[in-house]
């Protein structure tokens, strides 16, 4: 009985999810109206950057998981204009560095070249570029760890735990 | 109103009107309709139907495009709502936007509001501790506010009544200062919380650590299944609305229950302007409503009126109910309407770490936490401040991931969860003393978008609150240190009053009509067919999360109202 009630409730709720009514989605409409912060080329560089920070191994990297888009969305919608300017200028500077050092855009640079550029930025003395890298790295970690792929396949998020045990051995998993 | 014909007036006449559909209004509606009264429930916001209108309830974390953070445009436009811990991407649609209902802050006050059917019962923290006799006796013993006209014995059966229906998890702890209720199976305290409980009980015979009593169904009874509610699934995303009805809300419980009787008419988008007073009959005859969509004004009539608009809005409605008999607000012969507003002091918190039980952790999630009942000044005055505080307490095993470097090493670090120490934390819930100088009133010039006077709020902390914060930090830090917790730190967040969302008073209960608004059955002394049973009625605040007490007072007042109606006394 109890289970049936629950299943029925779930089915109804699933139905409700399919389309968000205006009063629910109205809160984030601003996103759509503002346009994109970065150009297509800059977006490509950002994707290359997040993929360098969390690369493909035997599992997908942050680039493939769309984390570049997440980083851009967060900075566009949730961060102030200073952070937005930092993202834009940081990407331009990174690209200039790449052209100077390797004669090609960051988007076309090799994996090792990209890593070298980011590591140099991390160790360098330009506070603005370091802050830019720190912001992108933090958002990359957030976007990757909260991606559907990682939460489903790697960290096994439980939507409905249906339990709380106050004291279990750490080894349980 | 001359152009309304008699039929139209008849169609707008009910046995009872309930203003508000939140936690107390839902209870008033349920009890009135169950007793056979044709009841109109007025709600200023839109309808929110159980499950159907919980758009985010089954969304996975990655489906929130900002991962629960709200866009800057929204937080900038809503600084008040944004200071509420629960205002986020998954729940923002259940909060009133700041500009929807402006008010005047004579002192900083965060007025957190939920304008929809169900009100804030969708968003509440679900903690449901009973008051004890020591709480009700406070004002009389310590000579502040006025004496409560009721004591624990008056309300105890009504606590039982509402607990059985709402579904309250808890442990029968047998503590004199925090009476046991009708409990479903308790949640677990975890190993560090149990350890702290033992440590504290070794040091102090009058200090207890217990699992919170909370409105979650841990062990469904027939009465819960009859409501279409099921066992709590420990999702701990309650603020989105629960498709299982695992926690109590008006939406999952009292409102559909009242609807099922066939006696309820629910009218959303109905902003109450005032209560209409009939000079000839010397009682209230109805309620004046502004339709939120059309801005049209219309009157509804009833024999009895329950005011459950949430504490400050109930004050606003009474203040705006002006007649030749009551030029200063309905029932306000005493002049105390709007005054003696109080709240809960949530400013301080304490954190620490524990290095024991490192081979243990917790499993699953818990929609509840530990609780420390008030131990200060309970049996006698023992400090240089009045009253005391309860506190939340919880422990969690810390986990972390290495975030060093970039590339494959970073990725490997992120995917390997490591265990740290246990983190422990507590926050205070202090009683504040109602004072005449903490008040709300109608602003003389500012109007809201409906043309209603804006509410002016002048509520602040006082010296008693500051001393209490200091004592809480000293006492609970000491309890932490005695338990061997390390890195113990205290924090005063200086949050504004109101951010606790436990604002109370302004229409207080009392024995004497000269110094109070309501009698022992929540009736206006001077207008007996109007009942106020939400936070506005509170004579003092004590320390417990107040909703359970509002539910019990509402059910008790309805019982009295219907008896009085039958005896033709109203």
Automatic annotation (TrEMBL), chain A:
One Pfam family per UniProt: Gluconate_2-dh3
Presence of the UniProt keyword Signal in the record: yes
InterPro entries: Gluconate_2DH_su3 (IPR027056)
Keywords for the protein's UniProt record, in alphabetical order: Signal
Residues spanning the signal sequence: 1-24
Designated name of the protein: Gluconate 2-dehydrogenase subunit 3 family protein
Organism annotation: Dyadobacter chenhuakuii
């Amino acid at each position: 009985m109890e289970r049936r009630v629950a299943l029925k409730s779930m089915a109804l709720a699933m139905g409700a999810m399919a389309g968000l009514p205006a009063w629910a989605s109205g809160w984030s409409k601003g996103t759509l109206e503002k346009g994109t912060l970065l150009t297509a080329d800059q977006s490509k560089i950002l994707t290359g950057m997040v993929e360098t920070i969390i690369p493909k191994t035997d599992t997908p990297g942050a680039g493939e998981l769309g984390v570049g888009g997440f980083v851009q969305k967060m900075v566009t919608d949730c961060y102030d204009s200073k952070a937005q300017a930092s993202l834009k200028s940081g990407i331009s500077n990174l690209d200039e560095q790449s052209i100077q050092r390797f004669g090609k855009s960051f988007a076309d640079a090799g994996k090792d070249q990209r890593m070298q550029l980011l590591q140099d930025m991390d160790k360098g003395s330009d506070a603005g570029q370091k802050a830019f890298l720190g912001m992108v790295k933090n958002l990359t970690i957030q976007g990757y760890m909260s991606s559907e792929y990682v939460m489903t396949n790697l960290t096994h998020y439980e939507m409905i735990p249906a339990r709380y045990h106050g004291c279990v051995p750490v080894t349980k998993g | 109103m001359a152009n309304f014909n008699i039929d139209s007036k008849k169609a707008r006449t009910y046995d009872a009107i309930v203003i508000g559909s939140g936690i107390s209004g839902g209870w008033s509606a349920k009890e009135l309709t169950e007793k056979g009264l044709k009841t109109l429930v007025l709600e200023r916001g839109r309808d929110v139907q159980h499950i159907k209108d919980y758009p985010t309830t089954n969304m996975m974390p990655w489906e929130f495009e900002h991962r629960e953070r709200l866009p800057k445009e929204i937080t900038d436009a809503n600084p008040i709502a944004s200071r509420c811990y629960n205002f986020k991407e998954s729940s923002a649609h259940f909060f009133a936007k700041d500009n929807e209902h402006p008010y005047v802050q004579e002192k900083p006050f965060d007025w957190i509001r939920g304008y929809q059917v169900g009100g804030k019962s969708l968003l509440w923290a679900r903690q449901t501790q009973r008051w004890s006799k020591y709480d009700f006796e406070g004002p009389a013993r310590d000579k502040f506010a006025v004496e409560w006209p009721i004591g624990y014995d008056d309300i105890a059966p009504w606590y039982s009544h509402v607990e059985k229906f709402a579904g309250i998890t808890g442990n029968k702890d047998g503590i004199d200062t925090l009476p046991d209720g009708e409990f479903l199976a308790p949640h677990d305290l975890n190993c560090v919380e149990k350890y702290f409980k033992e440590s504290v009980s070794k040091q102090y015979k009058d200090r207890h650590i217990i699992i919170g009593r909370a409105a979650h169904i841990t062990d469904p009874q027939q009465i819960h299944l009859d409501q279409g509610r099921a066992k709590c699934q420990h999702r701990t995303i309650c603020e989105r609305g629960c498709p299982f009805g695992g926690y109590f809300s008006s939406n999952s419980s009292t409102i559909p229950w009242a609807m099922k009787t066939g006696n309820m008419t629910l009218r959303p988008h109905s902003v109450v302007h005032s209560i209409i007073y009939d000079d000839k009959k010397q009682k209230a005859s109805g309620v004046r409503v502004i339709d939120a969509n059309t801005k049209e004004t219309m009157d509804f009539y009833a024999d009895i009126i329950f005011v459950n608009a949430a504490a400050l809005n109930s004050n606003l409605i009474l203040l705006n109910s002006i007649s030749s008999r009551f030029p200063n607000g309905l029932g306000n012969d005493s002049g105390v309407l709007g005054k003696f507003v109080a709240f809960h002091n949530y400013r301080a918190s304490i954190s620490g770490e524990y290095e024991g039980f490192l081979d243990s952790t917790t499993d699953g999630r818990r929609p509840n936490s530990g609780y420390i009942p008030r131990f200060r000044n309970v049996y006698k005055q023992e400090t240089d401040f009045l009253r005391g505080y309860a506190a939340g307490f919880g422990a969690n095993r810390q986990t972390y991931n290495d975030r060093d470097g970039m590339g494959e090493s970073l990725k490997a670090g992120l995917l390997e969860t490591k265990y740290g120490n246990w983190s422990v934390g507590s926050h205070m819930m202090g009683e504040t003393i109602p004072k005449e100088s903490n008040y709300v009133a109608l602003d003389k010039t500012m109007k809201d978008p409906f043309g209603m006077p804006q509410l002016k709020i002048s509520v602040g902390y006082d010296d008693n609150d500051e001393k209490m914060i200091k004592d809480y930090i000293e006492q609970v830090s000491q309890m932490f240190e005695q338990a061997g917790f390390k890195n113990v730190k205290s924090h005063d967040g200086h949050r504004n009053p109101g951010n606790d969302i436990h604002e109370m008073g302004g229409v207080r209960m009392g024995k004497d009509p000269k110094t109070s608004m309501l009698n022992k059955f929540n009736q206006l002394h001077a207008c007996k067919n109007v009942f106020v049973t939400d936070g506005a009625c509170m004579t003092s605040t004590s320390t417990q999360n107040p909703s359970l007490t509002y539910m019990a007072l509402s059910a008790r007042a309805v019982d009295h109202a219907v008896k009085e109606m039958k005896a033709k006394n109203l």
